[in-house]
Amino acid sequence: MKVSVFFLFTVLCLAVIVPQAFAHRVILTAYVEGDTIFVESGFSDGTLCNNADIEVFDPSGKKLLEGRTDENGKFSFKPPRRIDLKLVLDAGMGHRDEYIVRAGELPEMAAETPKHQGASEAVAGINPKEIELIVDRVIEKRLRPLIRLVAKSQLKTGFSLNEILGGIGYILGLMGIAMYFKSRKSGKS
User: Fold this and answer.
1) Where is average pLDDT lowest: 15-19, 64-68, 99-103?
2) Which domains does the chain have, with CATH numbers?
3) Is 178 helix (H, G, I), strand (E, B) or coil?
């Protein structure tokens, strides 16, 4: 009885933990540079997501555009409107990730740019909104290397805790199966 309970426990552990040991997580990141959104993708083991499907949705779930990553796991596009955008990467075999680009990260579109209303709104000939846009662009430009570094650090190599625990679960499962058959064999003798 003890052996069969142990066997069932081992099979349950294998069913839950082992699939995680063989899976590697897909990671999708994006950043805005000028009027373009740049997307980078890869797996947690460092492999690139080349030729993976990318879809872009608006907040209501309407698909705005679609494409495929290149051989380096990259994709870029110009946002159709200044709204929150949900990027969805499908790398096949259940590997999927999502990333949200907030409207505030996007530059103002030409139709949204405020027109000068006259000297009463301007200080020293410069509209306060224009100053804000200039400062935002400079900060974005200075932070871009850091954003890329963070995105690339997410595409780590090595083993995660889930992969290590999954491997241990796999070994224990094999030991449990071996013990089960050994106990059956010794019980028949």
Assistant:
1) 15-19
2) 24-109+126-177 (2.60.40.3580)
3) helix
